[in-house]
Amino acid sequence: MTALNLSRQDARRFAVKKQLLSGQRPPLTSAGVMEVFRALGCVQLDPIRAVERTQYLVLWSRMGNFDRQLLHQVQFEERQLFEYWAHAASIVLTEHFPLHRNRMDRARTATGKWQLRRNQWLEDNATFRQFVLAEIGRKQPVHSAEIEDRADVPWSSGGWTENQSKRSVTQLLDYLWTLGEVTVAQREGLRRKWMLLDDFLPAHISREPLSDEEETRQAIQIALAALGVATKRQIKKHFTRGGYPNFAKQFKKMEKTGVILPVNVEGMTDQWFMLAQDLPILEQLQAGQFAGRTVLLSPFDNLICDRDRTESLWDFYFRIEIYVPKAKRQYGYYVLPILQGEQLIGRIAPRMDRKTNILTINGLYAEPDAPRDAATTAAIYTQIGTLADWIGAKEIQYNPEKPRDW
User: Fold this and answer.
1) Which residues of the chain have pLDDT under 70?
2) Do residues 349 and 383 lie in contact, with contact meaning Cβ atoms separated by under 8 Å?
3) Its pTM surpasses 0.70
4) DSSP strand pairing (343-353 vs 358-366)
5) Which residues are 89's β-sheet partners?
6) Pick from 349, 346, 347: nearest CA to 371
7) Could you tell me which residues come within 8 angstroms of residue 29 by beta carbon, excluding any fewer than 6 positions away?
């Protein structure tokens, strides 16, 4: 099949469009939240709240100043979403449960060194495991602190979980979550309340696993639909990272049947691909129907979570510097990239002080080729103001000791 030829601008616009970062925003309703999740497939979870937690920031970048309670409503009341692994710990769609069920099943039989050690610890604590599951079934939803920590063999890792606050029951719940036996049924800040997964899932959701072939076919479609265009490697790193059994065989079959089309991207040596069903969207973009926006992105946003892809397609080098010593940071502790239209033009380093309700901008950095015109500048400051309103800041301050390129 002859490959389609795309300019890099086409490829970037296609990715931005598929990520709901251009054109009309989703409505500020629970339906709008679900529109975002169906477009992205998953949204990463992260506890850091230097500005706002990433699951909310990802929605804000697409929806605007939405009510955070909408996410809780859709996830914990309507149960259209649940928490599980995707490319990281994430919120995923309940309707995709059969696909994720396969990963849960594989976790039980994994033979890696760490997985074998985990499974041995679970076996050594079989009585404790049954006690915890019974307590959750009796009290659900329940916080780990409400469950007696009566492990037969207390957890000991010698690693990052080796601390007094990591109770064995907390470690056990994390493992049972990976295995698909429990799920997060409520969140109060960082406090999680647990429920048996089978009780949490709506009755109409199938509990049956998929064949490996069907799992991979669905995962490829979800990943590629979210990416717009991508290489095979980028697809495998997206959505259910590490969860594409027999990828090469299934991908070839999808190409042969015309579900997937080959694409040449200007200046790229690797072969790229897209879904045939998305051709009308691409044709509209190539005809000039692209309504870009100026948007601030979470550092964990789906558009840029694959750092190599981000650098390849946008010439934008981005790394999270949270764990870099302060003196060695190039940009800052928590940095939000700036998307203008289809270009990543810079980044800001904001920090919200919730005691004073002051949002401090510790640097506003432009890429070397970023536009500096009045319209761009106004759009960036408008977004900063909108962010401040949404997170409840009463004042915005700009650190005079940090760069301010606009």
Assistant:
1) 1, 157-166
2) no
3) yes
4) antiparallel
5) 85
6) 346
7) 70
